[in-house]
Structures are given as C-alpha cells and as structure tokens.
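Ticket #288: bound-state structure for adenosine-5'-triphosphate.
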Amino acid sequence: MRDQAEELRMRMLRSQQKLGRSIAVVSGKGGVGKSNFSMNFTTTLSAIGKKVVLIDMDIGMGNIHILLGKTVPTNLKDYLVGEKTIEEVMFEGPNNLQYISGGSGLSGVMEWNDKMFNRLIEAFEYLQKNYDYIVFDMGAGATSQTLDLLVSVDDIIVITTAEPTSITDAYSMMKFIYFKDPDKNFFLLCNRAFSEEEGSDTTSRLKLAMSKFLSKEIVVLGSLPEDPVVRMSVKEQVPFSILYPNADITKKLKQMVSSFTSIEVEENDIPNQNTFISRLKNLFSRRS
Ligand SMILES: Nc1ncnc2c1ncn2[C@@H]1O[C@H](COP(=O)(O)OP(=O)(O)OP(=O)(O)O)[C@@H](O)[C@H]1O
Ligand SMILES: [Mg+2]
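RESOLUTION: The complex was predicted; output attached.
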C-alpha cells in the first residue's frame, strides 16, 4: 500500500498548476462534528463562488446525503467497484456544491483492493482539475487506505471538542500524520465550545503541544459554539448555514471560511514556497 500512496502523490504532482486543493476533515475521537462541519464548510465555500466537491469517506456508514435530506441512488462504493462513472455518483447540493455520498446502511468495513485504490486515484485527478476544493469528510473508522489518503492531501482540518479525551486524541491524530509528513498544513478548530474562552483554551493547548513537542506550527481557525441550531438543522435535513444564516455559529463559520481562503491565497502568492509541492517534487525525483 505504501507504493500506492506514493503513486497517489506523484499523480497529484503531474499537473500541479491550478489544481484544486484537497482537504481532509479529521478528528481523533469520533462524533465531534466532522460531518456537520464538512457539510456547512463546503456549503459556505460554494456560497462565495468556489467550485467545491464534498466526498463522504465514511463508506457504508456515510451521512452527508442524510444531512442534505437526499436519497441518492449511487455512491462512492459504486464508483470504486467500477459499476458507475464518477459523474454518475456526483450529486448537486446547495449553492452548486457537488457531493459524493459514502452510502449508508452497510454493515462492516469495506474490503479495499488495488483496483479500488486506482479508481480513487483516477477520480482524484479528475476532481483536482475541475474543482477549487475537494473536501473529504473522513468518517469515524480509519483504514490503511483512508490513512494513506490523509497523508496525501494538501490540508488537514482537525476538529476537537474541549473534552480532554477529544484533545488528546486530536493530538495523537496530528502526531501520526505529522510523522508521515512533517510539512503537512494543519488547521485546527474547536467545535461545541461552551464559551469563547473554552474554545481558545482548547486550541491554544493543542497548538502549544504541537509546537513544543514536535516543533510544528499549526494554524488555529478558531472555535464554533455549542448551538441548538445544529441539531435542529440535522432534523430538518438542511445545513445550518442555510437554515439559520444569522445564527452565531453561522457567523463564526463564515469568518473561518474567509480566514481559511485568505491563508491559502497568501501561500499561493509565493512561488516555490509551497512545502507540499516541494515535498512532492522530492518524492518524484527520488523515484525517477
Ligand atoms: N456545534 C454543535 N452544537 C451542537 N451540536 C453539535 C455541534 N456540532 C455537532 N453537533 C452534534 O453532534 C453530533 C455528531 O455530529 P457529526 O455527525 O457531525 O460528527 P462526526 O464527527 O461526523 O461523527 P463520526 O465520527 O461518527 O463521523 C450530531 O448529533 C450533531 O448534531
Ligand atoms: Mg461523520
């Protein structure tokens, strides 16, 4: 599987100009709000005119389509096993957001094979050329394939809550990815914060731990409050950022989206300074 991960990275190198940015939304502990965040983050990115595709990597147990109140006839697995084309498994969400469902109601973990992995790479290439952002909602269970994917994306958005177990698990997850790729861009946010202070304490602790123990600087995106509109919007099956545009959480999310996009613009303004691309180049030259 290592060779496949390298292959994935090399392919991502090939046409590096104007490629969409790949982002994985992860957490250590499950159930911290990844799917709701991914859904609303991509909806908000789409609302400001970005071309975005959201991919539910929780294969067999995905819930992105449920959060959108859609029954989808096809999902990522149908594409991976070769039964459908990538276009056939893409559906339109709010604000022209495109999404690929992970499918739901399947028990057990999907058995990945090389063919599926190659098809994932092909989809990746196509999407990178056609979208500004490819966002992966990583789901709860990690497999070696999803971990390979994590190591290959440009950006990692890590979600934690203020609970000590969530914080330590978020740290372990970042450490795991960092050891695979020390140049990875990490963006951290605290979800379900009961106060601004609780949120900033949480993110500061993690930022400090990364800096002190791994000498790794990460970007803090801020925090999102514990807010009943999340539950209400899940029930209504409409993203909270659409159903409750004036809610505190929606305003905070918009700020996060604008700081996220501005950070990237700054990075892209500096040619040859993109550590991700440099790393890819190194990998590539070592292989050829
Ligand atoms: N900011 C918030 N305020 C209140 N409730 C929230 C908030 N964020 C998420 N929730 C609730 O937390 C629960 C879990 O959310 P979600 O499914 O997005 O988590 P997840 O990290 O994707 O879970 P999994 O690891 O199982 O994929 C949901 O019931 C959701 O309504
Ligand atoms: Mg989820």
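RESOLUTION NOTES: The chain has one domain: 23-287.
TICKET STATUS: resolved
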